[in-house]
Write a structure and sequence with these properties.
Layout lengths: L2 E3 L5 H12 L7 E5 L11 E4 L5 H8 L4 E4 L8 H15 L3 E6 L11 H14 L3 E6 L8 H7 L1 E3 L11 H13 L7 E4 L6 H12 L5 E3 L2 H10 L4 H14 L9 H7 L6 H9 L1
Parallel strand pairs: 1-2, 1-4, 2-3, 4-5, 5-6, 6-8, 7-9
């Protein structure tokens, strides 16, 4: 069996490969593709430098692949053409199964970030490729815990609960899908222990012994703050809109799908915060 992991040089892709290896997949059966291949050169797998814009290189990388973990592109606004290339290449190569990392509640949410993911889900379905949709909620690593110790937490999510999970949990769940049976056609809503931003601040305070507060802003003020610290306006607007949606429950999902795939409880928020503080 040959498994290809796209975006393998990013955080999630590398962790997925590490999980596959830990589950006993021979390194010779794993192909990792990405742009900064030096980041995964130590894993012992087959590594190919491939850009999502290069459909020919993608087709070559997918040839002979039984399964592909399709880690979504990171550049908002460029995802649709890049994802079209990936789906086209996977279909041309006759890939046996494609597992795509999407956004939570992609088919019902009004969160702007989900629009490109939903379009990709539909693109994959229209291709006729056997597929699995992994709708990942927020990564706990999105929150900079050491920085929060100095400046606190800011956002616009109000009392909305966020089913954040560690990247490692998401990666392990993806690996379980790639190695399991009966997942074709399934849509998994994946998330961890739900929390509000105020609860996250309280947990950081409890473990660090320092007072960390959460300041809730309007989406407009949050955009201003993010731009003020150097983020590009379009990216700041996406983040603020995601918080707006989170305030209405867009990022809260049950833990059942995640724990079913993991075969264990999700990593607790307290454990993730402890790791970030260390």
């Amino acid at each position: 069996m040959t498994i290809v992991v796209t975006g393998a040089t990013g955080h999630l892709g590398r962790l997925a490969i590490e999980s596959l290896l830990a589950k006993g997949v021979p390194a010779a059966e794993i192909v990792g593709i990405g742009r900064q291949v030096d980041k995964i050169a130590d894993l012992g797998i087959t590594v190919r430098r491939v850009d999502y814009d290069d459909v020919d290189a993608l087709r070559a990388a997918f040839t002979g692949a039984d399964k592909v973990l399709f880690v979504s592109a990171s550049e908002v606004g460029k995802r649709i053409p890049q994802h079209t290339n990936i789906v086209t290449a996977a279909k041309d190569a006759g890939v046996g199964l494609i597992a795509y990392t999407s956004a939570p509640k992609a088919d019902t949410t009004d969160m702007k970030l989900a629009a490109e993911h939903l379009a990709t889900e539909r693109l994959i379905a229209a291709s006729g490729l056997p597929h699995v949709i992994l709708r990942n909620s927020w990564y706990l690593e999105n929150y900079n815990v050491p920085q929060a110790l100095e400046h606190g937490l800011f956002g616009a999510s109000g009392d909305g609960r966020i089913s954040g999970a560690t990247r490692a949990d998401f990666a392990e769940a993806a690996a379980s899908v790639l190695l399991g049976e009966g997942h074709e056609g399934k849509v998994y809503e994946l998330g961890g222990e739900a929390f509000t931003m105020a609860e996250l601040a309280a947990e950081i305070s409890r473990q660090s012994g320092r007072t960390v507060t959460y300041t809730d802003l309007t989406p407009e003020k949050y955009v201003e703050m993010l731009v003020g610290v150097g983020l590009p306006t379009p990216y700041a607007e996406i983040l603020a809109d995601s918080d707006r949606a989170a305030s209405r429950g867009a990022l809260e999902v049950p833990r059942t799908d995640m724990e079913s795939l993991l075969g264990r409880p999700v990593t607790p928020l307290a454990t993730a915060v402890e790791a970030a503080l260390s």
